[in-house]
Design brief:
Keywords: Signal. This protein is α+β, with helices and mostly antiparallel strands. The protein has two domains: 48-113, wza like domain (wza like fold); 117-185, Outer membrane lipoprotein wza fold like. It contains three helices and ten strands. It has helices at 2-26, 86-100, 137-143, and strands at residues 48-53, 61-64, 70-73, 77-80, 107-113, 117-121, 127-129, 155-159, 167-170, 182-185. A five-stranded mixed sheet has the order 7-6-10-8-9, covered by helices on one side. The chain has a three-stranded antiparallel sheet with strand order 2-1-5, with helices on one face. Strand 8 (155-159) and strand 9 form a beta hairpin. It is elongated. 17% of the residues are buried.
Length: 190
């Protein structure tokens, strides 16, 4: 029995060392290239937040970011949300509430619904769809019913929120979609 356990441990250790050596090959960044920065979610119009102010049910609730990037909050009025992370917005609202109304305001801000994505062009059901964290272009196309028979499946046109023009990108499995993006699948040239 102990011989089997020792053999199993030896095999497991060898596999772990082998996998550790392989992971270095997979995770390397090309020389001179900076690693990709993680995506930081910033609030924008059409986002919906749940703001829970501890022991204050009169102001606790769901709030939408309006087209100007503000949230209308009881007692405070309009407070800027656009461009801020959830943490930054929470800190600004806490500071405002403590300065004006509550001695020791404690609140939690959660994202209830993010702004939608738009999938257009050569897909079976073009339209507006809910954003899901980690969504790729291929996932967005699948949500829109897949490619039509005329679709160019090699490139995609993407316009990120705040950008004036579309950018052409190769259609690969790792192209990430951000909330508010417009994804357009072009017709292929025969």
């Amino acid at each position: 029995m102990t011989k089997r356990i020792a053999m199993a441990c030896t095999t497991a250790c060898a596999a772990a060392l082998w996998l550790t050596g392989c992971s270095a090959d997979i995770a390397q960044t090309p020389a001179g290239a900076a690693p990709a920065a993680p995506y930081v979610y910033r609030l924008a119009p059409d986002d919906r937040l749940r703001i829970n102010v501890y022991n204050e049910p009169g102001v606790t609730g769901e709030y939408a970011v309006n087209s100007e990037g503000d949230i209308s909050f009881p007692l405070v009025g309009m407070i800027k949300a656009q461009g801020q992370t959830l943490g930054e917005f929470s800190a600004a609202l806490t500071q405002t509430l403590q300065a004006r109304y509550f001695k020791n305001a404690h609140l939690v801000v959660d994202l209830v619904a993010s702004r939608p994505i738009y999938v257009l062009g050569e897909v079976n059901k073009a339209g507006q769809f809910p954003y899901q964290s980690g969504m790729t272009v291929l996932g967005a196309v699948a949500t829109a019913g897949g490619f039509t028979y005329r679709a160019n499946q090699k490139t995609v046109m993407i316009r990120h929120t705040g950008q004036a023009a579309e950018a052409r990108e190769p259609l690969t499995a790792d192209v990430i979609v951000q909330p508010g993006d417009t994804v357009r699948i072009r017709e292929r040239n025969f």
